[in-house]
Amino acid sequence: MARRINTYVPAGSPPGWSAVAEQVRAIVATAEPLTCYSAAELMGVLTKLALFAHAEGLPATAQVWLSREVIERFVLGCTHLTNGTKGTYRSKLLRLREAILGGDCATGKPVKLTASDAARPYTPAQMAALWSWACGQPTKQLRDGCQTLLALGRGCGLDSPEIIPLRAHDVRRIEGGPVVVAVRGNRQRLVLCRRAWERVLAEAAAALDGQAAYLFRPGRQGSSSLSRSSCLALFHTKRTHTSVSHRSLTERGYLAGDLAYNNSDPDTFQLPARALGYRLVFDYRDDQLGIQAGAHGALQIEGRWYCPSIPQPLIGATQTFRAAAPDDAAQAATAADLYRRQITARTAYELTPKGKPDAEGHQRLSCPATAGKVQCPIKPASMGTDPRLPPVRPTPSPAGPPTICRQHSITIAPEHGAKHAQALPYSTADQQRVYHRLRSSTEGFNGYAKDDAHEAIQRSQGRRIRGIAAQSLLLAFQLAHANFRKIFRWLDSLPRIDGRPRRRIRRRTTKPLND
Predict the structure, then answer these.
(1) Full residue range of the structural domain in which residue 385 is found
(2) Cα–Cα dist 75/86, whole Å
């Protein structure tokens, strides 16, 4: 660094440089370790100031150059620069002034004043909510990433620019001792992780053992592609303010759709359908199984809300069953029987509704221990009540028990898990009966409306017009016509007022002899 300072020469070797060069180099050499700027940045701006002062006939001393009056005259005199560049020059020169001459206050550096309130530390309840939110992410990659981010931020006190470049081997666990993080960047140092967060951080590093991968979001290719905003974006989930209409108090029955419908934007399908009073029933793709969302510590598993301490085999029951490939019928029957028993066992850990949803669609749900369905050590009143009740083994959390474990009940808002929420526990006998009956009815009507002798909705030649809006309008007319045709067909089968039968509906598809 000293060599760079001593060999610095401004571009074009302007006149007067020889008169100020020695003083400029001395000032930068003294101030560079005390500022956040590099020597090259300081040399450039101080050289311009020194040449300005020399042209004005001012003495070549730090007290004169770095006085506020000279700095202001120099900055305002750079009329060819933008205001942003002028502000940058002023900031660098004021940092040089503080390093060489000290602050303007005799007692030290002036207090920085801002209109914004200082950021307050997270409360224990807020940290428990954040941890519950991280555990409720729909994929393992998101869950691991959010938990690692919390461990590095809360457990080690690191900021986003320090988290992003960390590699897996930067986390070291001393034999029988604490977890240490080797921080990279301008503030290289060793940081001890808080004891409560050691397990989370150690497991994240152990999962990448032997790989030169980033600790946070290991799949990315470079740290430059992940900015501070994208790191913090993990804590900003989309929140909707859609409230369910009062009409939801009047249920209209079940509504089912194929695998594409439960992947829709909840604001455009699920929430409006629930607002109309429909009870949704879905099936899921393989990548939508297991944990789908979280709220107040409760986990949404395949459309329903469960205790956060539900055993892992019950969480992944459907994934395991679908992934199994039995060799013979006996093994297939055994796997199916195990899956049915696991689905039945989930019932004990499901949160219990307290009444019906209110006018806005908010639903109160009770903890299964409070409802007398399981025995949980966090809820002492549930222990020993019935030896037949399954015991709950809460997983230790670095942020403490979540809200559902600290309270008797929680409130689930309409937007909580709205994308995959459904009215019946997934894969139970009731859910399968309702879903397959509705899907069969839907596909049957699709075939009815595709009849080439009538609407033929599958043939685009019948709607020769451009634009999705026009196509949708014409398709609506075709479907309405199919509905009328089905209704009239049914009316024709009813008896007349005098009790005599109407025209019998011909069932044969062949042509009669006398036609």
Answers:
(1) 246-431
(2) 6
